[in-house]
# Entry
Amino acid sequence: MKLPHGLFSPLAGLLLFGVLIPTAQAQQSLSLRQSCPLLTNITLPDTTLSSAEVVEANGFTPPRTNNTMGTPAFCRIVGVTLPAVNFEVWLPLDNWNGKYNGVGNGGMAGVISYAAMGGALNRGYATASTDTGHNANGGLFDASWASDRQDLIEDFGHRGLHVTTVNAKTITEAFYSNPPAYSYYTGCSKGGQMGLMEAQRYPEDFDGIVAGDPANEWTRFYTGAHLWYSLAMLDNNQEGWIPPAKMQAFGNAVNAACDVLDGIEDGILQNPLACNFEPASIQCPVGVNNNSCLTSQQVTAVEKIWSGKTNSAGELIYPGLVPGGEADPGGWSRWVTGVEPFTSLHWLGGEGFFRWFVFDDPEWDFRNFDYDTDLDYALQKVGTAVDSDNPDLRPLRDNGAKLLVYHGWSDPDISPVASINYFESVVDVIADDIRANNYETALKSTQNFFRLFMVPGMGHCAGGPGPDRFDALSAIENWVENGIAPDSMRASKIQNGEVTRSRPLCVYPEVATYTGIGNTDEAENFYCSAPAGP
# Structure
């Protein structure tokens, strides 16, 4: 690099009278570059580090893609922990913020989450991701790898992320000669389940955990959601299946009935639980079946999906979806109906899980599922490995860590009610622990370490009609490092690169309330308060 006399380059140094004098930052960067390949010499339990190499800025293209990622220069470490937990650790060569950010997966995992790692790296974090112990070449919900492999199911359920976290933090300390000052986790969907599993089983791994739309009751979720919604659509010769072309009319009818309940007509249901829309109100007249109405069988299917599934004793197995966001292109038409029968993501997820995780039978027929005996069998066989439903978070609390959970109200995959139910179960445990004689006392005590944010109009982890972009990582950083608990987070809707709407996300059970003055698309004109409805 040729510079005029006296100009400064943080990477090269100061060129003075023709002599390049390295700066401290440049010297450190050079030292880290030289140290990177040596990281393969680190000894880790049951782990092999196959490579450690410097990747220059904007020089990484993820496998099976042609898109080069925009990242700073980093040291890329590739490893595997027995039996088959593949992982990568990325360490910035310059401007490390002194922290670590582990990232989660989606679906049935099976891949390294390169995009999430890139986001963490660009914020200055050391970061890591794991495939949780198997390869997902068969697709997002491929579960065939679980056949006769309880060890892989354990890795997928909880162990894979934990061993990766321990290894990554050890590698980070070896590289920088200092451990991370703070460690954070971020993930959504399966990644949300992974975050709650960390909070429940490994409360010392992270100082702060962000878990979005978590599939925490994994076995019950796959039973009472994935499988139940599929049966509602596909049983009886697919009579209940709803073509995606009907979703616009369906969504419009829901909005017409419930959108204004919060006082604002904006295409967003602030509190879907207050919506009493009856699907039968848009039932087709006898002899008519077009895209503006639902047949009687389709009405029944929607009622089943919204009500959730109970067992023979009348006990709810898993809550149903809630009204709102049905017309969103990434919503019901992708998750619930599919472009044609047997293509929805609910079907692909439920069928694969029970075929391979539970029954290990390539001929298993989803129509024969018994919601009493088969659910009990599934819970006993795999529930302890994959279910992150333990409400006792006192070890996390006592370790000084913080947990932030968010969930989109228009999630077409995982019922938002499930996250509310889990939060309330934690409040119950804390109430007993502190011998609280009223709900408000237990709630405030729980919110000292665990806060839930419901996101009106957001779909599954993103999308939907409502604002879906917000910075939960900065919120939990501020909470952990400065003791400032997030009372709200600003969420934005971005279309064509422009912010078209913003709203505050409030700490459950509070909701964003319009002041009555100003533009309803601007967050500044709302405040958080107790909800008016159920």
Notes: The CA atoms of residues 233 and 398 lie 46 Å apart.
